[in-house]
Amino acid sequence: MPAPNCEYFSEADFKNPSKGSSLDSVKLEASDDEAERVKFEKKTMLWVDIRILPILALIYSFCLIDRINMGAALTAGMGVDLELLKGSRYNIASMIYFVPYIIFQLPGNLVLRILGPRHWLTLSVLTWGSVQLGMGFVTNWGQLTATRVLMGMCEAPFFPAMVFLISTWYRRHEVQKRIAVFYLISLTMGGVSPILAWALSLLDGKRQIAGWRWIFIIEGTITLFLGIICWFFIPEFPHQNRFLTKRQTDVVLKRVEEDRGDSIPDPLTRDKVITHLKDWTLWSYGVMFFCVTMPAYSQAYFISIILKGMGWSKTKALLLSAPPYGPPIFTVLLSSWLSDKYKHRSGFIIFNTLVCIVGLCLTAFAKQNAVRYFGAFLTNIGNAGAAPGILAYSSNNVVSHSKRTVQSAVTVMLSGLAGIVATTVFRTKDAPRYIPGIATTVGCQMLLIVTVLITSFHFWRLNKLSREGKLLKPLEGQTGFFYTL
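^ MFS general substrate transporter, sequence as received from the core. Prediction below:
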């Protein structure tokens, strides 16, 4: 704020603050200016929230729905029509998606920096929507498997690009609440997926098309429509945006610059990518997200099948798959709010992971079906609480756009391995309890806790050395930067 113009004040004014034209008036004006600045900043960030989070959450919701609707389609009759129940055909068709999904994560984020978020994300949505639509017309399990390969390739760029984009707009300790909101919206839609699939399966026989085919056809059509919406509403990076005024853009860039000093992207080179890939902490985030994704995939692909194995009908199995996704809406918001408030991640991640372990054990080993079903609630509560925390933890401890590009890709890339493992260890012959699969998922949660503890201890040690002035250079090359634990 500029200094007051002293020609309006005499020396006596400065010595006698009781006069009307005194420094008290100047201080009051300064206070008013500060209050106005804070108000303007809050309104700007609220508009950023409204402009970015809902559209990303909606599109990612159908990204998840299109990815996980295999279980619902199987329950609705696809397994019989395409002979997927023979041997490991269903597992192979489910698993093969994740091979290209993993391979194209990092290249996708590199292309993002070239084409920009709007062009690249729109292309991703339109292509996977087309593949999803095409899945409604396959005639054998080989064709279904081929479409799953294409689906993995087309969806691969979306999630890491989305996380990367969100992290560029906010301060480090504002990220988890935002990720939690978008994650919860998508989680809620994921819970609605079985109900939507059941409703679409009721179209069985319309135009001589099987009900399970309608699931793919209509959901693919919706995704294509969202691809068009994506073109008009997905924002660019903050310094390139076209929906804020110059003053609002300056506010966003200033906040990010003061927080971590990377408001403007640094050049992305091959040497930088190689250097970032040598940082073991980036891979630790990937291991964490791999572990936290295992329960999500096991629930998504097999919950309706497990419920049907408990004795419920096809309809009830699909409908009862949705309620476990309800309670996390409240618990995740609370966990994320507290995590941002106290600027702490690891403790909340570990607590939520322990809740998830309890839920998995109940589903696997409890005798009563009601208790097993309750375990699905706890699994989702803990898993949904830990996932946004890991995404925030990883983005909080990275500086520069080039490193963030690699970090978000590596994190999500390794999560794709969870899909391969989940669709492999949950074998058809282990139905209806799937003990080996659930036991493997519990083991992954224990690995998650160990990885968080090791990484956090490493960051705590570096923070301590930095505060004591024992490091040769600032952390992450940014003066005043400290890792979030």
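Confidence is low (pLDDT under 50) at residues 1-28.
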